[in-house]
Fold this protein.
Amino acid sequence: MKSKWSLFFMSLILVLVLCLPSCSGMNKTPATGRISDRPYTRPTDFMPTSKTPDPRSVPARSTRDKLEVVAMPPDMTGRIVGMLKAIPMDTPALPKSTVFFVDHAAWCQALGVNRHDYRDSQGNTNFESENFYIEDVVISPYDSPDSTRLVWSSWLGRSPFISGMGLSLGVMSGRDTLKKLPVRTVNIGYGPLDVDRSILSLTLYQDTPSFFEAVQGVFETGAIYQAAANFQDGAHSAIFSSRDGFDIYSWDGQEDYARSLNAPVFDTAGRGVTLAVRPSHIFGNQQPALVDSMIDAYQGRVKSAADNAWFTALAERMESMGAMSAAIADWYLVAQPNPDITDRYLLQREEIFMKSVATAPLLGPYVAYAAGLGVDELGMFVSLALLYNSPELAGIDIETLETRLAEGYNTASRPWKLEVESYEIWTEGNVLCAKLRGEVIGYWDYFIGLEPLLVRASDSNE
């Protein structure tokens, strides 16, 4: 069967629960269980962590009252593809997968945010100041209450739990939970200010869902070692090991709500994570075997998402358009009602979705797609990329997409011609590309599975 997912099946995965054990076609990585058998070697840059600074010595937040785009972002070439190397792809066949990328450092540059403003003169920070950074950048700038989003989520897109800026698996609440996350410098030796970019992808391990999580930045491995060593009781202590230049810290990944949001790295359900740490990267998952797979993928021993032609083609288009946040899916969207939906609100959304689909011709047979958010000389825009099997098929759909923008509407019954102030559509080889400007920047990631604009025709056997 080809990779096709209906709207509300995807909405449950991407937005509401992200934890359906029955989802077929997800990344399934075989257990290897190698990490815990390896002896631990203390980090070479080990040093005692500095004293937690007096909260009064750390700037409270950005000195600007309002954040807005003030500068052009950096060249994004290679940034998304580079992070795809951390996502294992363990089977030759393409699974139905979605990866979420955020370049926090690039957004700070575009918004004129200096992360040093959240540290004291010695480079120290604290829990409160890290939370002010989250409020200033992750939550506030474009967090409109008048949104089509089913539940609150950051305008930047989905970040991993291990970044200190992302919700854990199955969490439906938002703003307040983000500010309670334990992934802070005082608890684990690094925090949100140290993270330059991140990537996230849902996977299954023995039929249990979890996330492949990776962050890139500059990390003090000695500080992380010392922070982990501070937790000695059985419920919060880690197993220490190492391999291939990574220091490994493995906390119990079983649910235990008595540990909910406990330091150093327990999520809302009290699940600990395994972290693989090096000065430039941290990989994470609840299962040590999956962290092993991430290391193997990153070092080229097994196939990664960067070896997948569909993912790399779409990632490169996102990069060339300047997307600093992106969601890339190796499946396509068709209009197919979900008989399992019983919630009245979701049924109403589905009804609007299906009616909107019928207002204009459907797109042709694209096989995978991506959406992103970026900035150029004209301001902020949504980037779209649809991958086809030929340049001819991509070219045909320029007119189709224009018609859908002119005649259709979103799941809040607002016409696209009002939501989209202007647009550009073109092709690059077998990829249909588009930039949309207007109100749609507030829900850019909903174009992956949750809004009807990009619905394509079904194959005859579907």
Notes: Residues 1-56 have pLDDT under 50 and may be disordered. The chain has twelve helices and 15 strands. The two ends are 8 Å apart (CA to CA). The first strand starts at residue 4 and ends at 5.
